[in-house]
Automatic annotation (TrEMBL):
It holds the Pfam family Pyr_redox_2. SUPFAM superfamilies: FAD/NAD(P)-binding domain (SSF51905). This is FAD-dependent pyridine nucleotide-disulfide oxidoreductase. GO terms for molecular function: oxidoreductase activity. Residues 3-109 form the FAD/NAD(P)-binding domain. InterPro entries: FAD/NAD-bd_sf (IPR036188), FAD/NAD-binding_dom (IPR023753), Ferredoxin-NADP_redctase_2 (IPR050097). Keywords: Flavoprotein, Oxidoreductase. It comes from Limnochorda pilosa. Gene3D superfamilies: FAD/NAD(P)-binding domain.
Length: 189
C-alpha cells in the first residue's frame, strides 16, 4: 500500500505535520522511533497548557489526534529511504517496508537519514544544532519529494515552535499537492 506521505519522526514537528496532513485527507503514515527529545522533557512554556505538560503526554496526545484524523502510526527506526516507482521506499530496522509518494523528515537532531539522502545542509542558528537541512519557506529540501521540519530544518528547539513548523511544512506540502494554497479552518458547531 502506498501512502501519500510518510512522516519520519513523531515528536512535536512530525506529529503536528501528521495532524494537518491527515485532516487534509492525505493518506499519512508516521514512522516514529519513540526515542525523541520531547519524550524526556518537561514543558512549562507551551501555549494553552498553563500547568505545564510532560513531553510523553504531549507526544502521546499528538499521536492520538493524528490517528483520530486518519493517520497511521508505526513504531520503528527508519534505516533507509530510497527513491522507487515515482515515490519512496522506507525500510525500518525490523525489515518492514513502507511506500510513500512523498517523505517529510522530522527527526529532530538526528541527521543520518538526511545525510544518506544527500540533502543540502546549511549553518544552523543554535549552537546545539550547528548544521541543519537547507529548506525553502515551505519546507522543501534539495531533493524533490523530500520535505523537512522542526529542529532538522533549523526551527528553534521549543516544542511550540517545532509543532508550528511541522504544521507550516505540512501546509506547504498539501498546497503543492492540491495546486492551491491550503487553509484549514473549522467552526464551532
Amino acid at each position: 500500500m502506498q501512502f501519500d506521505v510518510a512522516v519520519v519522526g513523531g515528536g512535536a514537528a512530525g506529529g503536528s505535520a501528521a495532524i494537518f496532513l491527515a485532516k487534509a485527507e492525505l493518506k499519512t503514515l508516521v514512522l516514529d522511533n519513540d526515542k525523541g527529545q520531547t519524550r524526556r522533557a518537561w514543558i512549562e512554556n507551551h501555549y494553552g497548557l498553563a500547568g505545564g505538560v510532560s513531553g510523553p503526554d504531549l507526544v502521546d496526545a499528538g499521536q492520538r489526534q493524528a490517528q483520530r484524523l486518519g493517520a497511521e502510526w508505526e513504531i520503528g527506526q527508519v534505516v533507509e529511504i530510497t527513491r522507487e516507482d515515482g515515490g519512496f521506499a522506507l525500510k525500518i530496522e525490523d525489515g518492514r517496508r513502507f511506500e510513500a509518494k512523498q517523505v517529510l523528515l522530522a527527526t529532530g537532531a538526528a541527521m543520518s537519514l538526511a545525510e544518506a539522502l544527500n540533502l543540502e545542509f546549511t549553518d544552523g542558528r543554535e549552537t546545539r544544532y550547528p548544521r541543519v537541512v537547507k529548506v525553502d519557506l515551505d519546507g522543501r529540501t534539495s531533493e524533490p519529494g523530500i520535505w523537512a521540519a522542526g529542529i532538522l530544518a533549523g526551527a528553534s528547539a521549543h516544542t511550540i515552535i517545532t509543532a508550528g513548523h511541522g504544521a507550516q511544512v505540512a501546509v506547504g506540502l498539501i498546497s503543492e499537492t492540491q495546486g492551491k494554497r491550503h487553509v484549514q479552518h473549522d467552526a464551532l458547531k
